[in-house]
Amino acid sequence: MRLATLMIASGLALSASVPALAKSIDWSELAKHPDRYIGQTVEIAGAYCASGGVNGDASGYQCSTAGALYIETPDIAPASAKQKVDENCGGMDVIERSSFCRATIKFVPQSFTTSTELEPGKTVTVISTDAAELKF
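Now predict its structure.
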C-alpha cells in the first residue's frame, strides 16, 4: 500500500489499460507493418488527436500523424490530456496540428484496416485500440 501511494504521489502510476513498457517506433514503421505490432505496447511521437476525428463523425477519438497513419481509440488518458484535446485540439471537422497539440501516444494495437476516405487521394492505415495514453 505504501509503495502504491508513493508511486501515485510521484506521478509514476500509469493507466491500468495501457501497459507501462512500450516500444518506441516511427509512424511509418507501424503503417507499413501493422500486423507485427498487434497486441504489443507501442509509443509514437508526433500524434494529433481530436474527439470525433478528422471528419467529426467518429466515435471516441481519432489521432493523426505526420503521414499515412491514424489511431482510433474510444478514450484518452490521463484526464488532463483528455481535457486538453477536448478543449483545444479539434472540433468543427478538423484535427489541430499545432505544436501545442502534438503529443506522444502510447497504446496497444488491436486491429487495423486501410482507408481512402480520411485524406483524399491517399491510402492511410487505421489502427484501432481499446485505450491510449497521451503525453504532451
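The first helix runs from residue 2 to 9.
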